[in-house]
């Protein structure tokens, strides 16, 4: 190819190198892909070492490691959020998964003390195209590399994230093994990836809290955008299936007093607390792998107002008698358009899920309230007769746009309505 000067001493041939190259090596069952990029050859302030991401389809992606070292298996999913990698890293719903960020430049704002979504990082690892060589933000407390190393989470960079994303979009989500261990052969890693599965595994029990506790923190005043908090206080019991803390902060900001309970907390104990409402949270893995949670949800339905978010929505769907199914590659990102069928509005939403409820399997009376406009899948449900509302996506965002925050107000209104019904004088029948 003829080399043409573009200015800033960058040439077309330099740029073509930056887009990586597929170099299939037909010698064995596996094919190796390396990313050649002249722009990242300079000295780096962090340790680098060779790493391999071996996917179950036999492709091997050579990369450099940051964070922890070792060998880790997980399902690879891609996330299209442009910002918010710290919230993504601490979202417990990613347990068992490698998150590949499609935004090519990650790490430039470091990590801070405020943006944690849970007590630790539960994900299998992080896959990025380019790790920022410098970190600059007024809230930055640590670099991304140091943060991951301390939490024993593996990361890789200098890998062709666009090519992997296209593969996942075409072939569906894939299991992969990430390794920095040179003593393991490609075939061994491939075998590992082909013999592990995320379907049917209860990942909730590994991320849920162990004992009930109160939650009081609201969204900090400087970040608050809801100007009309409720004048009344409502007691909400929140089931922690891997709950993101911003769900709790948003509920507290809307005037709720919250008791967080573990995933195995009996429905009877919850009902004894006489809550105004119950929240079923987001969480990792396959909703069909946790029948005990579906049973708990079933025993609460109809008795108090409930709100299900993501995993909570899927468990509600199953408790109502419906079915969930695994999607081809799921939805992960902060830019998913959702159609609110009740208002006619389109919301740009934050999403993170691989499973969905099949609305055709739900009983009569259950209303589909929201649709994902990318693929028409069910994004929200309501069953007014049973005081149920649920969303497949994340109204708390974090990271993501705030378009769907109104859902917390709707939940408060549901509880308010129920309270007012109880205080109405009962007509006696003769
Ligand atoms: N964020 C979530 O709650 C995810 C729910 C479920 N683990 C899924 O992947 O669909």
UniProtKB/TrEMBL annotation:
It comes from Stylosanthes scabra. This is carbamoyl-phosphate synthase (glutamine-hydrolyzing). Residues 49-179 form the Carbamoyl-phosphate synthase small subunit N-terminal domain. NCBIfam families: CPSaseIIsmall (TIGR01368), PRK12838.1 (NF009475). SUPFAM superfamilies: Carbamoyl phosphate synthetase, small subunit N-terminal domain, Class I glutamine amidotransferase-like. The keyword Nucleotide-binding applies. Its EC number is 6.3.5.5. Pathway: Amino-acid biosynthesis; L-arginine biosynthesis; carbamoyl phosphate from bicarbonate: step 1/1. It holds the Pfam family CPSase_sm_chain. Belongs to the CarA family. Keywords: Amino-acid biosynthesis, Arginine biosynthesis, ATP-binding, Ligase, Nucleotide-binding. It catalyses: L-glutamine + H2O = L-glutamate + NH4(+). Heterodimer composed of 2 chains; the small (or glutamine) chain promotes the hydrolysis of glutamine to ammonia, which is used by the large (or ammonia) chain to synthesize carbamoyl phosphate.
């Amino acid at each position: 190819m003829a080399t043409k000067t573009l200015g800033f001493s960058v040439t077309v041939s330099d740029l073509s190198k930056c887009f990586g190259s597929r170099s299939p090596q037909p010698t064995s069952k596996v094919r190796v892909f390396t990313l050649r990029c002249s722009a990242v050859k300079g000295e780096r302030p962090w340790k680098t070492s060779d790493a391999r991401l071996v996917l179950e389809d036999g492709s091997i992606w050579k990369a450099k490691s940051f964070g922890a070292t070792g060998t880790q298996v997980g399902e690879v999913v891609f996330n299209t959020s442009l910002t918010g990698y710290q919230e993504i890293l601490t979202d417990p719903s990613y347990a068992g998964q490698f998150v590949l960020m499609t935004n090519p430049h990650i790490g430039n704002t470091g990590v801070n003390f405020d943006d944690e979504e849970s007590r630790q990082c539960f994900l299998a690892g992080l896959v990025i195209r380019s790790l920022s060589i410098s970190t600059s933000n007024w809230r930055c407390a640590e670099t991304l590399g140091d943060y991951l190393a301390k939490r024993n989470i593996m990361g890789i960079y200098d890998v062709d994230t666009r090519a992997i994303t296209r593969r996942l979009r075409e072939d569906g989500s894939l299991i992969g093994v990430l390794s920095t261990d040179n003593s393991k052969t490609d075939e061994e890693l491939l075998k590992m990836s082909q013999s592990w599965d995320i379907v049917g595994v209860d990942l909730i029990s590994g991320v849920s809290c162990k004992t009930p506790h109160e939650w009081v923190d609201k969204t900090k005043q400087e970040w608050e955008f809801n100007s009309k908090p409720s004048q009344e206080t409502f007691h909400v019991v929140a089931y922690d299936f891997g709950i993101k803390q911003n769900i709790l902060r948003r509920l507290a900001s809307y005037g709720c007093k919250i008791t967080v309970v573990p995933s195995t907390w009996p429905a009877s104990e919850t009902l004894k607390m006489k809550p105004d409402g119950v929240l079923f949270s987001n969480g990792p893995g396959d909703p069909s792998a946790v029948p005990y949670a579906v049973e708990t949800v079933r025993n609460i339905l109809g008795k108090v107002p409930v709100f299900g978010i993501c995993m909570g929505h899927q468990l509600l769907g199953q408790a109502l008698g419906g079915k969930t199914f695994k999607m081809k590659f799921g939805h992960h990102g902060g830019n998913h358009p959702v159609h609110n069928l009740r208002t006619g509005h389109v919301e740009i939403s934050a999403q993170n899920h691989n499973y969905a409820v099949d609305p055709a399997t739900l009983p009569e009376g259950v209303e589909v309230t929201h649709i994902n406009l990318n693929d028409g899948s069910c994004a929200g449900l309501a069953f007014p007769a049973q005081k149920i509302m649920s969303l497949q996506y994340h109204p708390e965002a974090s990271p993501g746009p705030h378009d769907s925050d109104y859902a917390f107000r709707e939940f408060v209104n549901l509880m308010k309505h129920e309270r007012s019904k109880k205080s109405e004088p009962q007509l006696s029948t003769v």
